[in-house]
Amino acid sequence: MIKKQLIMLSVLAFFLLSLCAFTRQSIPPQSVFYNLRKYTIVSNRKDYETRFEADLNSDGKNELIWSFQAEPEKEMDGFPRAFTLIYEMQNGKEKLVKTIMGNMRPEDTRIVDLNKNGFKQLVIFTTGGNHYTNIAIYQYKNGNYEPIFEEGSASGITFDDKANPPIVKIGRGNWKKEGWSYATEPLWEIYQWNGRQFEYSKELSNTEWIGERQDINNLVNHFKQLNEKENFNTSEKETAKFIAFNIGARIEDFFK
Predict the structure, then answer these.
(1) pTM of the prediction?
(2) Each residue of 78-103: pLDDT tens digit?
(3) Which candidate among 56, 103, 119, 175 keeps its CA 20 to 30 Å from the CA of 88?
(4) How far apart are alpha carbons 183 and 161 in whole angstroms?
(5) In the chain, where are the structural domains located?
């Protein structure tokens, strides 16, 4: 009798685990709405998809984190975008609680513990254009998943959470230097973790603070000056293509 009950319990446990796995596999929607736009998930790009679990809000239960690429509907102009969704378990069901949009392609999504105290952060890398990288770091606070650091660069980004304290290195265009190009060493804007946020460090950096928006403006100004110097007479459409080639979908975010 006891043996029979154990077998039945084992079968029931297997069924519940299978049901849970089925539910998790069924979570991803076919489309995402963001900023009044509908994006359809690119189902044939599994190499861009990441799915894992972690306890981001320190409630003792894992959240589901899912990163993927989605395209705007055909009747809408725009770039494919990288999305990261966070699901929480609420009343026995998983509920979408956060939608994060990045550049064009998801590259790396990972969990870190910047303060080494068990309170975790979510780090998201996305890329766009030919060589543009964006980094976004989110943390649960004030009852929400909030960004504590966001930056982007066409000159490379390095994130080192093993350093003491952790640092982020952001490459910046050195257009004032004669002959400089993205193939050469950039200026480095370095941010250091202070226990609450990443702060720009003038001592560690070899440039004054520039920031992503100004870095993109410097690229655009350089291109315009080059056009005038060489008398290329480049159209606005061709200029937009050049910018998109370098920064990807960030052109939608900065040049609306």
Answers:
(1) 0.86
(2) 899 999 999 998 887 889 999 999 99
(3) 103
(4) 26
(5) 27-254
- Helices 212-230 and 236-247, interaxial angle, to 10°? 140
pLDDT of 29-85, one tens digit each? 788 988 888 999 887 777 788 999 999 999 999 999 999 999 998 766 789 999 999
Side chain identity at residue 253, one-letter code = D
